[in-house]
Amino acid sequence: MESAAGLAALALFVLWLGYWVPQRLRHRQQLLESRVEDRFSGGLRVLAVAGGGPSAAIAPPAERASRLALLERRAARARRRLVLTLLLVVLTAV
Asked: Which end of the chain is more exposed for a tag (fewer CB within 10 A), N or C?
């Protein structure tokens, strides 16, 4: 006659195997699906690149001025957000 501990160990092993096998199959399926080629990549293309390409160094003064104006507006908005955030933090603390 077999011991109860042996049967319990066998039952635990079967339960673990019942969990592990589907888990591994699901993981393997996800890996297989992630390796499928992207069917849209052939139709994608870059329309414009912002920033420091080779043409940025020789940009006309009008473009440089508009870029400077844009950066100044961004900095002003960042300062306003900082002041508002600090004000709200102080009000929350009070």
From this structure: N
